[in-house]
Amino acid sequence: MIDTHTHIDFKEFDDDRENVIKRFFENGGEKMINVGCDLKSSIRSYELAKNNENIFASAGIHPHDADTVDKNSLKKIEELVQHYKVIAVGEIGLDYFRNLSSQEKQIEAFKLQIELAENHNMPLIIHCRDAYNDLLDILKEYKTSNWRGVIHCFAASQKIAEEFLKLGFYIGFTGIVTYYKDKSELGNELEIYKVIKNMPLDKILIETDCPYLSPVPERGKRNEPLFVKHIAEKIAHIRNTSFKEIEKTTSENAVKLFNL
Length: 260
Ligand SMILES: [Zn+2]
What we know:
- With 260 residues, the protein is α/β, with parallel strands linked by helices.
- The chain has a single domain (2-258), classed as Metal-dependent hydrolases (TIM Barrel, Alpha-Beta Barrel), CATH 3.20.20.
- The protein has ten helices and eight strands.
- The chain has helices spanning 17-26, 39-51, 71-81, 103-119, 132-142, 158-166, 183-186, 191-198, 228-239, 243-258, and strands spanning 2-6, 31-35, 55-59, 86-95, 124-129, 149-151, 170-173, 204-206.
- An eight-stranded parallel beta sheet has the order 1-2-3-4-5-6-7-8.
- Helix 2 runs parallel beside helix 3 and helix 9 (228-239) crosses helix 10.
- Bound molecules: zinc ion (ZN).
- The site of zinc ion has 5 residues, from loops.
């Protein structure tokens, strides 16, 4: 299993970080990507990656902190992405749900970091909430031949998923997919089930986004990389296939996208 989106540098793991890492790698975990969301966490992610063979890092500034994107911070992100264990630019994107930075500033910060990624031929880890139309417009505007990345924590419609797939993006699923009841209990097909069922297998990634979004049956607790297995299990269940197949293909997808 590869958890493609962790935040184990966060303070929630200060007391037992080494044990959390050990638990993952001793129970089927192969690799994890610790994702930066501001300058400090990008540096911490880089440090974690530098000190652990199978931990990789991304560097980038989240839309919540778009106000902090300036020449100076971009220069530091650019220095980080040149280290071989830093394998993506992210998480970057748009968040119109919380709007912690203005939308104008978010768009500007997103574009600047896309350009940075393009200059260094890096994949993108994209965060998007309530801003899919603007985000798609920007991605279409910047589309180039070696363009690639993941739409992290996907929770939108089949139609929007198709737009991202057309642009060549991978789709990342978190514990959110485990929050819905079984289809047979509901009697009709949920949109997220439809998205997962129709997704080409070679475009699916699994991610915990820990410490947030703990999947069922751990919901309500602190999330950790090992729990990514519950997401793989749920996807296997929805697609009527085996855990092994989802585990294997999502790992292959992650290796391919991020060149791990
Ligand atoms: Zn995240």
